[in-house]
TrEMBL record:
InterPro entries in UniProt: Lysozyme-like_dom_sf, Lytic_TGlycosylase_superhlx_U, Transglyc_AS, Transglycosylase_SLT_dom_1
One record GO biological process: peptidoglycan metabolic process
Compositionally biased intervals (Low complexity): 52-68, 90-100
The name this protein goes by in its record: Soluble lytic murein transglycosylase
Organism phylogeny: Bacteria, Pseudomonadati, Pseudomonadota, Alphaproteobacteria, Hyphomicrobiales
Length: 774
């Protein structure tokens, strides 16, 4: 969930005509902006992707992403990562082109023409609207839908002159607001700062306010109005973008306020992601305001982000000792052959930087010198200012501690994990889990383990984190001989029956189902509030106008903010009616993640076509489980790695599987024919299950990371099919965070889908141990 604070970006008088191209003096412009940076994503019905689940990768190339939420996965080899600002929806594959929704259903009596009209419509809405009921429909509201469509179509063609003319000719003020929103988000140089700020002043509750403010700042930089106007525009607030920092600093210098100018540009230089052109502009225009220590602070930030080349660009502005330091850290980032030599060339005056210690640790860890890396980690500072990026230090601790466990030194591994100073809640919980797991399973110290698992409970807010905390507290209590306390923790974990650890806990208690709830339904109060929501009205109008591809930010924001399971049900129903079942699932997943009772919605049973050919002996629930995790049932999904369709098949795999089935290989059908993709995907799944002698754990691991990795992990950690091997510990031992997460999510999905499809009972422990040892 985002935290917002009020932000004012005044431009000195209200713009005289909306279509004006220049900057005008404007009134205060309040916008709610997240208190932490949010990444901008393009308006598309298809959210950003999961980390690529490509074929087997080497540890140095293992995928890593840092995101918010429990479905985050971080591989154990540090490589350059995406660092998203805006919430990235979980488990979403990306489509190569916007998905064109099916035609909206005919208009019904619910006609959300405007907020007042929506309220009147809500009064006559049905008393209960369920997932299969008559939920909100899309009104074409006469010629207005056509007019709105024409304006948005012109914008899609980048024909801004026509867009402005059509926008100003719209008779309905809310249609104009929708076009204004699309213009404000566009980032086009044809859209003025006055246009953007006027929209934002009228729409404080709309999504992505920081993106909109950043676009306004970029427009202000392009327009370069008089310095006094710019200073009044910021009204003492700090810019959110590099462009804003440039235009504001320039204005402050021009008006003689060099102290404030230095403060603004230094803050941006220390913290903000920038394009190469923005960096060059700042160095060219404001080098006199930036000190060597400012350049070193930026270099540190860039190096912790593995942006070695950008850090090297700063070498002309720092001392010779710091140039050697940057060279050494860049060599370690690149895993260069001369990294040791570069480290040895760093003068003593620069070796006292914590980043030098970090580079030594990373250098040794990459060469699997875990004991040396551990000895260096014992010297690491604990305060955030010295660490600069505490989460990156935890990543090194995690990799080193796992290496030590494999080498038979769990005691040092525990000390390394327990000594973390992770900053983000996700990494804090991950660090506490590792410390607790080492203490319980390798040091046989349940008391110490319990304290770490309790810390996870204190940190966590989502079902996955909380179920993990309670389940492992139960395991610690059980190991300590306190069966009553253990059952109490298992009961708490079992309330999260849609999760892996919750299901393990339910089996501990002898329960034979995951506890899937009934489909959520909306009462008349939910319906009335929902239909009055202006973002819902905007969704209706965009879909009716044929611009469903613009709706994801609205769906995303509403899924985070609507207050009830009933309204999540209505929002999910809206996406389904628009022909976007994958968006319906993402909406429901967010509701489930928030603790709302939307179990049935979050595990839909409509995603696999009935015409799919299922191989004999294959559990249909497993196919659903994979498809939910791989594509969120988006038949048009294409991953960055090139995997396609419902079950995210790589073209080579699809070709070979089609041949084995005697089917023609038709690449276009992988994303256009859901039944074709599911038929090939189900056959490939059955091949993998047979290849691993029935093991679901190895099959799921191979589907995500490649068969060669699964075989490698058998050699390293034992065979999960062997009764002497603890399969739960085996999954926890998987060195790639993405694959650990993937196996757990698909395993939990399988249990839920058995219950949803009526094909079996809860049997997660049996599924973990399934198969005959090879």
């Amino acid at each position: 969930m985002k935290r917002f604070h009020s932000w004012h970006f005044p431009l000195a008088a209200v713009v005289a005509a909306f279509g004006g191209a220049g900057v005008a003096e404007a009134a205060p412009f309040p916008v709610a902006v997240p208190s932490v940076a949010s990444q901008v994503v393009t308006a598309s019905v298809v959210p950003p992707p999961n980390p690529a689940r490509d074929a087997a990768q080497s540890p140095a190339a293992a995928p890593q992403t840092r995101q918010a939420g429990d479905s985050i996965v971080v591989a154990d080899a540090p490589v350059p990562r995406a660092r998203p600002f805006r919430r990235t929806p979980p488990d979403a594959a990306v489509a190569s082109v916007p998905v064109t929704p099916s035609a909206p259903p005919p208009a019904s009596s619910v006609t959300p023409a405007a907020p007042a009209a929506s309220a009147r419509a809500a009064a006559s809405a049905s008393a209960a609207i369920g997932t299969t009921g008559s939920g909100p429909s899309f009104s074409n509201y006469g010629s207005r839908a056509g007019d709105l469509k024409q304006a948005l179509d012109a914008l899609r063609r980048d024909d801004y002159e026509t867009t402005f003319v059509l926008r100003n000719g719209l008779s309905d003020p809310f249609d104009r607001k929708i076009v204004d929103w699309a213009l404000a988000r566009s980032g086009s140089p044809k859209v003025s700062s006055a246009m953007i700020t006027e929209f934002a002043a009228s729409a404080p509750g709309w999504p992505d306010p920081e993106e909109i403010r950043a676009n306004a700042e970029a427009a202000l930089l392009r327009e370069n109005p008089p310095a006094a106007t710019v200073v009044r525009s910021f009204s003492g607030s700090m810019p959110v973008s590099a462009a804003g920092a440039i235009v504001y600093t320039r204005a402050l210098v021009s008006t003689g306020d060099r102290n404030r100018a230095a403060s603004v540009i230094r803050s941006a230089w220390h913290t903000k992601s920038m394009s190469g052109s923005e960096e060059r502009q700042i160095l060219s225009e404001f080098s006199g305001l930036l000190r060597p220590e400012d350049h070193m602070q930026r270099a540190e930030m860039l190096l912790y982000s593995d942006r070695a080349s950008a850090a090297e660009d700063l070498k002309p502005y720092v001392s010779s000792a710091d140039r050697a330091y940057i060279d050494a850290r860049a060599a370690v980032v690149r895993n260069a052959g001369n990294a040791a030599s570069k480290l040895s060339q760093v003068p003593a005056s620069a070796r006292n930087r914590p980043g030098y210690l970090f580079a030594q640790i990373a250098y040794n860890r990459r060469r699997e010198n875990y004991r040396e890396a551990a000895a260096l980690l014992q010297k690491a500072p604990r305060n955030e200012a010295a660490l600069i990026d505490p989460d990156e230090w935890w990543v090194e601790r995690r990799i080193v501690s796992r290496g030590l466990v494999e080498e038979g030194d769990p005691r040092t591994a525990y000390a390394i994990a327990a000594g973390h100073a992770a900053e983000s809640p996700h990494f804090q919980a991950e660090a506490e889990f590792h410390a607790g797991w080492y203490a319980l399973r390798f040091l046989n110290d349940p008391g110490r383990a319990a304290r770490h698992f309790k810390n996870i409970e204190d940190i966590g807010t989502t079902p996955i984190t909380l179920s993990r905390a309670y389940y492992w507290q139960g395991r610690a209590a059980e190991a300590a001989g306190n069966s009553g306390r253990a059952r109490s923790f298992y009961r708490q974990a079992g309330t999260y029956g849609m999760t892996y650890y919750g299901q393990l806990a339910r089996e501990k208690l002898g329960q034979r189902n995951a506890g899937v709830g009934r489909p959520a339904s909306a009462g008349i109060g939910d319906t009335a509030a929902f239909t009055r929501n202006e973002l819902v009205i905007a969704l209706n109008r965009l879909i009716a106008a044929g611009h469903a591809h613009r709706t994801w930010p609205l769906f995303d924001h509403l899924s985070e903010t609507v207050p009830s399971a009933g309204q999540i049900a209505l929002l999910s129903e809206m996406a389904n009616r628009a022909g976007m079942p994958h968006i319906a699932l993402l909406v429901s997943k967010e509701g489930l993640n928030r603790g709302l009772a939307v179990d049935g919605l979050a595990f839909p049973t409509e995603g696999i076509p009935a015409s799919t050919r299922m191989p004999a002996g294959l559990d249909r629930a497993v196919v659903y489980a994979i498809a939910r995790q791989e594509s969120t049932f988006n038949p048009g999904a294409i991953s960055p790695a090139g995997a396609r369709g419902l079950l995210q098949l790589m073209p080579g795999t699809a070709r070979a599987t089609a041949s084995s089935l005697g089917l023609a290989y038709q690449p276009s059908r992988l994303t256009s024919d859901a039944s074709y993709n599911a038929t090939l995907g189900a056959a490939h799944l059955k091949e993998l299950i047979d290849k691993f002698d029935g093991s679901y754990v190895l099959t799921f691991a191979a589907y995500n990371a490649g068969s060669s990795r699964a075989y490698e992990w058998i050699q390293r950690f034992g065979d999960p099919r062997d009764p002497r091997v603890d399969a739960i510990d085996w999954v926890e031992s998987i060195p790639y965070g993405e694959t650990r997460n993937y196996v757990q999510r698909v395993m939990e999905n399988t249990q839920v889908y058995r219950e949803r499809l009526g094909t079996g009972r809860l049997s997660i422990e049996e599924d973990l141990k399934r198969g005959t040892p090879g």
